[in-house]
C-alpha cells in the first residue's frame, strides 16, 4: 500500500510552529497513536485545532505534558485540568470558538470557502470585534475558515487506496479535519482491500488522505481503547 | 447542605418531559436535561446528540459499552431504531439550520425578557463553550431547565444578566422546582407554581418581574 507509513515516519513531517488540525470529541475518534508518536518528535510551539485537548495525560492532553503546545483552538477545555493550569500559568494560549462554528470553519477551510456568516455567537463576547451584517433583518457575524499544515484523523478502516470508513460517533470532526490540512495523516485500526468498503460507506474519499498509519498501540477491549505496553523504537 | 435534592431535579425533568410532543427532535443539554428520557412514558422522540447522532437509545449495560458511541457528555449510549450518524459540521447544520424542534438547556441565569447566560461566570476562567451558543441561536424552541436559585441561594431568574449572555436569541420557557414561566413579547409570565408555595414567596426567590397568568396552575 503506497500511503502506508509508520507513525514516526508520518509524524516527522510536522514542523515546529505548525498548525495541526486534529479530529476527535474528547478521546472518541481521537488519533491516539499519532499523538503518542508526536510526543517523541521534536516539533514544538504547535497550535492545535481540536474540539478539546483530550483528558489529563491522555490523547491530546499528552502534548501538554510534553510541552509542545503554544496554542489551542477549540470549543471546550474546562474538563482537562492540565489545560486550565497551563493557560493560567501563561504557558498556553486558548482561543474559544462555539462548537458548530469550529466544525463549519474546518469544513469551509477544506471547501475553498474563505469565510461565512453565521448567527451563532452574535451578541456575545466570543465574537467581539468581528464583522457583522444583517440578512433578512437578522444579525450575522463573519467567521473565517480554518486551515492547517497537517491534519491528524482517526477512522476505523482504510482501504489500500486510503478511503476511510468511520465508526459511529467516533466520526465527529474527522471528515472536516481530513479536508482542511495541507498534509493529511489518517490513523486506522484496520487496512482492507480496495473495494471492501462499500462506496456509500466511505466517509472520506482517498484523495484527501496522504498517509495511512496502522494503530498497533491501542487495542479495543470491553468497548474501550486500552493502551498496550509497546515501545516505539 | 444547599445541594439540590434529587426530588427537585426529578420534578423539573418530569415537567419538561410533559412539554415535549410525540415526534419532536430534541437536543438535551448536560445536567438535569439528561434525566428527561426516564420520564417520557409512551412518547417517542428523536434525541439529537451534537457529536453526530440523531436517535439516542437507552444507556447500554456495562458489557455492551462502546466508547465509539457516546453522548455529548461523553457517556456511553446506544442507537434507537432509525438512528442516523453524521459528522460534526452536519450535526451543527441540523442545529443551526432550525431542524431541531426543542433544545433543553441548563442556565446559570435568565433575565425577565428571556435572555440566557449559560456558558461563563465572570471572574472565573472562561475556557469552555461547547455547543451552547449554536443551540441558543438555532433551535426552534428553547426550554431552560434549571434550579430556581444558585447553590448559595442567589436568584438566577433576574432583572438583567450579570453573567455573559449566550446570544441574542431568548428562551421560550423556564422550568424550575418552584415554578414554570413562559415568555410572550419579552414579558415573563408565571403559568405554574409549586404546591405549598405562595406568589409572595416566589417573588422573594425570583429577582425578575413577572406577570401572573390568569390561568395560573397552583398544583405544580
TrEMBL record, chain A:
SUPFAM superfamilies: NagB/RpiA/CoA transferase-like. SMART domains: CoA_trans. It holds the Pfam family CoA_trans. One of its GO terms (molecular function) is CoA-transferase activity. Keywords: Transferase. InterPro entries: 3-oxoacid_CoA-transf_A, CoA_trans_fam_I, NagB/RpiA_transferase-like. Gene3D superfamilies: Glutaconate Coenzyme A-transferase. NCBIfam families: pcaI_scoA_fam. This is 3-oxoacid CoA-transferase subunit A/3-oxoadipate CoA-transferase, alpha subunit.
Automatic annotation (TrEMBL), chain B:
The keyword Transferase applies. NCBIfam families: pcaJ_scoB_fam. PANTHER family: KETOACID-COENZYME A TRANSFERASE, SUCCINYL-COA:3-KETOACID COENZYME A TRANSFERASE SUBUNIT B-RELATED. It comes from Thalassobacillus cyri. This is 3-oxoacid CoA-transferase subunit B. InterPro entries: 3-oxoacid_CoA-transf_B (IPR012791), CoA_trans_fam_I (IPR004165), CoA_transf_AS (IPR004164), NagB/RpiA_transferase-like (IPR037171). Keywords: Transferase. GO terms for molecular function: CoA-transferase activity. Belongs to the 3-oxoacid CoA-transferase subunit B family.
